[in-house]
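[step 3/7] inverse_fold.run input=structure_tokens len=402
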């Protein structure tokens, strides 16, 4: 709870200066998990614990904030072809580029971790605001075109119905499944946010050099626990990283930190190669099966081949080692946990009901009625920029050059 409050505190730290706190679209709730968060109201069913997503009665009703909860049948009648369209477009994208699943999973992760699953990641920078996706630490996020293609098809089939935030979730789930991973049953009904701040990307995404304590803290900021952290790290089974993201492991004076020392030496040669140009090279995080969603990532770590510091430490830290060992030995256990943790991640800070909007195009928010919502249309400047600045925002933070 402490860390959630901390984050709420920084995001709306200037709230106190404003007389109209209600207008702040980030007022607290966005950094908590919808239903299922510690202290959240139980779902509207008997028996306490939330039902596993794929079976049994599904939670419906209101979330802890009195807003409609995400709903497994949200599009069943409103847009029955939703999931089929996502499936078709994702398959096309994978046929063109086998690394697509990793990128789609990453888009959803980056969106959810930075101010909630509200498609803020997709908004482009404007004249007066640098958006999340353009922060220099945007980690080479890619495949926005796949999301745009899905959106274009959906606008033909069911105009104005499906949010970009839900498309991100559905595309990520579909990508995991088409790469050989589990079927992930997501609930829908997310709406699209109005804002996107580059600085929020900087402060909210976990860094690749973090150790377990830092990783746990980062995940706790968005309501995810240590188990979720280990489980979701397993998404690296289809991931790649640039050498620059693990250069810390080759820093001058650092003894080869790879338990598989031959592997470490080969990697260092690959990445440095006598000069620094190699730092832009990419390395697969699960070298054995890069494009297959399996438990190979955990087997690599156990074998002493964890690439990033944040991978390696999951096996060396006694508090996470048992889970890594389990997943390395038992793919079914990993898949079952991944379904649960990804669904949980998909509830971070969601907007539902009448909050936000359903964007017509995912990269730009719909024009807002400037007479009824005067704060909202300053050439796509941040909504209510006076009091809803992101963490450590100063006077220059709305500038595209900040
Ligand atoms: C990432 O940010 C850089 C600016 O720092 C920008 O040039 C690049 O286009 C961004 N990447 C994407 C995919 O938007
Ligand atoms: C990678 O594949 C090889 C050959 O199939 C196998 O011997 C090795 O154990 C695998 N490594 C890991 C970490 O799974
Ligand atoms: C962490 O979250 C998972 C669900 O993602 C849950 O199964 C587990 O009980 C939680 N662990 C703790 C210690 O709360």
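[step 3/7] decode complete -> sequence:
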């Amino acid at each position: 709870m402490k860390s959630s409050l901390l984050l709420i505190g920084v995001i709306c730290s200037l709230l106190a200066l404003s007389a109209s706190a209600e207008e702040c679209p980030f007022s607290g709730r966005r950094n908590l998990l919808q239903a299922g968060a510690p202290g959240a109201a139980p779902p509207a069913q008997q028996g306490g614990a939330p039902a596993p997503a794929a079976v049994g009665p599904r939670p419906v009703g209101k979330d802890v904030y009195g807003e409609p909860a995400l709903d497994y049948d949200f599009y069943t009648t409103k847009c029955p072809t939703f999931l089929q369209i996502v499936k078709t477009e994702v398959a096309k994208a994978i046929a063109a580029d086998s690394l697509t699943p990793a990128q789609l999973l990453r888009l959803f992760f980056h969106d959810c971790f930075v101010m909630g699953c509200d498609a803020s990641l997709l908004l482009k920078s404007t004249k007066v605001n640098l958006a999340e996706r353009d922060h220099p630490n945007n980690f080479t996020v890619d495949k926005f075109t796949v999301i745009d293609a899905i959106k274009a098809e959906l606008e033909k089939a069911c105009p104005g119905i499906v949010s970009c935030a839900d498309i991100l979730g559905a595309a990520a789930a579909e990508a995991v499944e088409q790469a050989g991973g589990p079927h992930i049953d997501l609930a829908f009904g997310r709406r699209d946010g109005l804002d996107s701040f580059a600085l929020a990307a900087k402060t909210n995404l976990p860094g690749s050099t973090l150790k377990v304590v830092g990783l746990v803290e980062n995940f706790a900021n968005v309501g995810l626990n240590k188990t979720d952290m280990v489980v979701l790290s397993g998404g690296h089974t289809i991931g790649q990283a640039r050498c620059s993201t693990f250069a810390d492991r080759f820093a001058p004076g650092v003894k080869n930190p790879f338990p598989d020392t031959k592997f470490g030496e080969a990697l260092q040669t690959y990445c440095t190669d006598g000069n620094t140009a190699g730092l832009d090279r990419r390395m697969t995080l699960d070298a054995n099966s890069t494009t297959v969603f399996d438990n190979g990532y955990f087997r690599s770590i156990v074998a002493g081949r964890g690439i990033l510091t944040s991978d390696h430490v999951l096996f060396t830290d006694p508090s996470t080692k048992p889970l890594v060992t389990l997943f390395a030995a038992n793919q079914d256990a990993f898949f079952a946990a991944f379904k649960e943790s990804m669904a949980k991640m998909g509830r971070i800070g969601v907007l539902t009901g009448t909050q936000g909007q359903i964007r017509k195009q995912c990269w730009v928010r719909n024009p807002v009625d400037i007479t009824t919502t005067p704060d909202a249309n300053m050439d796509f400047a941040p909504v209510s920029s006076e009091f809803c600045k992101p963490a450590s925002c100063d006077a220059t933070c709305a500038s595209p050059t900040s």
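[step 4/7] annotate
The pocket of 2-acetamido-2-deoxy-beta-D-glucopyranose (ligand 1) is lined by residues 133-134, 136, 138, 141-142 (CB under 6 Å).
The chain is about 35% helix and 0% strand.
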